[in-house]
């Protein structure tokens, strides 16, 4: 059980002790020792801050939040001091549950289920008097017998689950599932009993029929006794596990939904985790199994870190998991073991939604291809959309991934592997025009991998081999033009559609169309393209970023011995149209942000910088993390995603600085931090079609995260902010040292009713709201004439126009008295005015 107010975890065991632990530190707070046997059930009532416990000794004990005993009773009896005859009737207790909706406690024993109220002596559940357990009655089945019995023998009630709607589910060793409704009864409540004068009427304990109705019953739910039970509130399902080594899912009306086989032992524990919508199960296993309850597919590998194989775990296991519990308030999962240990898994709200393991070395590159569903003649979708993900790294293998579940977009299955590179793969992208993935790496080659799938036409991979050193960056220029940069100091453009022309053989050489030699003075590290500006940006270890105009070709020029830019003979080049200068170390990455219309760069100087269309720096930020290792952009909201050496992924929202305190018009605000990798993050990929971030790391894993979703604001607002930032950047570039503050841009205007002579002052001076006199129109006009704001003048003008429109002339006859009917009044008014009704008279 869990106390959310004090953050205490309560556990009970075979040693007859109830121990209270601090959830944050794991320290033992206190031990409670009132039971005389195995403690089998615990429940904490948040509404009244009380703990309830039951055990094999048949005792039901109510505790205060501080650990004091409030009341003790035998199930089915009055109190613990009853005679031996009464004690023998209760027997051991096996489970209990608190019904927060109706403020009731349900206790399960051998075949019987008792219902208790925890109230004061006058029957009130909310008064401040001393509380005590009051037996309300015992539940009975449709034949008036104990609800859980088999062949005339009472079987232990294994679990009681209560959902938010008031339904009660009970299961037992008799293999039966029963559904009760606490909001409905099968009989009238007991009549009140008159008490002596001066005392309130006393209502006796209700009968079994008036407690709750037995809605559904299902016998033979398992081939063996039911050993574990939990509920899935997201789907309104009940999930049970039994001695027959199966897990079965049930609907709210006790009908089977699905079934899972294959466990090697009895299912000993079940727990549903709402934070991840996953089902945790144990079967005397060294580690828990995690399933998607909607499909019952095994998703353990996506949630838990990489571990040894199941066979190795069986050989080296030091403990076996017996029971599983979920702390609904914190999202934590608790497990008890056969070695009397308590294991806790804490939910990380900013952790990965899934973890993908397949690579044997560092993972450096990611890319994805998405194809929307086809639409029919009437615009409706025909079929389903498809998504394919590829990853590559130092193991020189291209690995393909496909979605594992339609219900959970964060799950991917490894499908195939492609080998071809002779060294590490450093960069990857997808070209939709030719339906292929493009990769490059240490072997100085660029390889084209046709898209896989049942609808894709079979094609051979192609290789582009003009670079003479490591290829470090790729970017698409338009639909089918590829830009590549390399350590050989060249920038090359390729036509990918020509590489897949009919008759092209595998491994055939394909020439580039544009080449710029000596494009930088040092290694070129990254390349990006801006379709709005028609510019290619290349970043280098020479601490600069150069911009190339794709619309302006240059002719070939002879090779310059001084290392100046040149274009080889027979090739075309591009004109350099700008340079971004400001970094003090290698510029490792450059990106173009479409929502913000800004260039974004990262450098070894540990800064992220923003540049406007004119190449002027408009923002700078130094994220924590001992160096930037990856940079990406959120294509929906314009956020900057930064991966760092401390294995974290940080998301920054870009907004104009209106305070005037910053040196730059733009500022980056941290909005989300994702942690989970064990080494540096080397690549970040945004998949807007699934609202996911995918990251690759040196820890040889790929992690999938939920994308950042701002509570307010959208891409359009980001674009407006970008326009404002450009305007401020131009003002800053013109030499103006002073920026307008937010107060100057948005001056405060005093409301009219707060001004001197306004409505508030008149109310105070005339004795309040009730004593105020009716304000004459002349006084109102005088008060409003003092309005100094434009809004006040506009309101005054509108009020004057409305008065002139709707006020009747002074010579108009007096209105007809209410004694006449509306028809008579209308006819007399028309007769007096001598005109037909119009829209004004109707109003």
Between the first and last Cα atoms, what is the distance in angstroms? 67 Å
| Mean pLDDT reading | 80
Radius of gyration: 37 Å
Shape: elongated
Annotation field: number of helices: 11
* Largest beta-sheet characterization: 4 strands, antiparallel
Low-confidence stretches: 79-88, 187-197, 199-209, 712-738, 766-788, 810-843
Notable characteristics:
11% helix, mainly beta, 4-stranded antiparallel sheet, 59 strands, disordered C terminus, 843 residues
SSE blueprint and pairings:
Blueprint: E1 2-3, E2 8-12, E3 18-22, E4 28-32, E5 39-45, E6 50-55, E7 59-64, E8 69-74, H1 84-90, E9 95-99, E10 104-108, E11 113-120, E12 131-138, E13 149-150, E14 153-154, E15 157-162, E16 167-172, E17 177-181, E18 213-218, E19 226-232, E20 237-242, E21 247-250, E22 256-260, E23 269-273, E24 278-282, E25 289-292, E26 297-298, H2 300-303, H3 310-316, E27 321-327, E28 332-337, E29 342-345, E30 354-357, E31 363-371, E32 374-375, E33 381-382, E34 386-393, E35 397-403, E36 412-419, E37 425-431, E38 436-441, E39 446-450, E40 462-464, E41 471-477, E42 481-486, E43 491-495, H4 496-499, E44 514-516, E45 524-530, E46 535-540, E47 544-554, E48 573-581, E49 587-593, E50 598-603, E51 608-611, E52 617-621, E53 628-633, E54 640-644, E55 648-656, E56 666-675, E57 681-687, E58 692-697, E59 701-706, H5 715-733, H6 742-745, H7 759-765, H8 777-784, H9 790-806, H10 822-833, H11 839-842
Antiparallel strand pairs: 1-2, 2-3, 3-4, 5-6, 6-7, 7-8, 9-10, 10-11, 11-12, 13-14, 15-16, 16-17, 17-18, 19-20, 20-21, 21-22, 23-24, 24-25, 25-26, 27-28, 28-29, 30-59, 31-34, 32-33, 34-35, 35-36, 37-38, 38-39, 39-40, 41-42, 42-43, 43-44, 45-46, 46-47, 47-48, 49-50, 50-51, 51-52, 53-54, 54-55, ...
